[in-house]
Amino acid sequence: MNKTFILITLISVGLTCLISTLFGFAGSTIIGTFWGWFWITILIQFIGFLIINSYLIQKDNLQRQQAELETLDKLAKFSIKLTCAYCQQYNVTPIQLNQKNTFKCESCNQVNGISMQFMATTLTSPIESVKIPVEKSESIEFKVT
Ligand SMILES: [Zn+2]
Asked: Can you spell out the DSSP letters for 40-92?
């Protein structure tokens, strides 16, 4: 077991007993016995720790989920260069993989739909056979409809 963990646990237990002892002495001067106050204080602290702990774990989970969503959102956005289907003018448009994409041509104001096509390649293919000329790449990977 981890030494730091044992140390922290011992300190926590020590503090809990100390607080319970103080409440035991203080409470028993008013009403009841030392041990009555002692055990009730320990119980209250224990329940308090449980509540705080589960709250912290929940908060931690929520933050992690939020961070994962933001990362996914960033990964899903790309900018690509496409020719307008109406006037062949080049347009740079953001696309997202998880939704339907359209863009309005800057030159003729027509709304274009974007259809995406993906293809699988074998990893052993010679590089020359999968190389796509830069100018034609969008007509193979991204088609404007
Ligand atoms: Zn256009």
From this structure: HHHHHHHHHHHHHHHHHHHHHHHHHHHHHHHHHHHHTEEEEEEE-TTT--EEE
Torsions phi, psi for 52 (to 5 deg):
-60, -45
Q: Is 19 exposed, middle or buried (0-12, 13-18, 19+ CB in 10 A)?
A: middle
Residues near ligand 1 ion, CB 5 Å cutoff: 84, 86-87, 89, 105, 107-108
pLDDT digit of tens for each residue in the chain (145 aa)?
688 999 999 998 899 999 999 999 998 888 888 999 999 999 999 999 999 999 999 999 999 999 998 888 777 778 889 999 999 999 999 888 878 899 999 999 999 999 988 889 888 766 665 555 555 444 445 555 5
Ligand 1 centroid to residue 85 C-alpha, Å: 7
Please indicate, yes or no, whether the overall pTM of this predicted structure exceeds 0.90.
Answer: no
**How far is ligand 1, taken at its centre, from the CA of residue 119, in Å?**
27
| CA proximity to 134, closest of 91, 81, 84 | 81
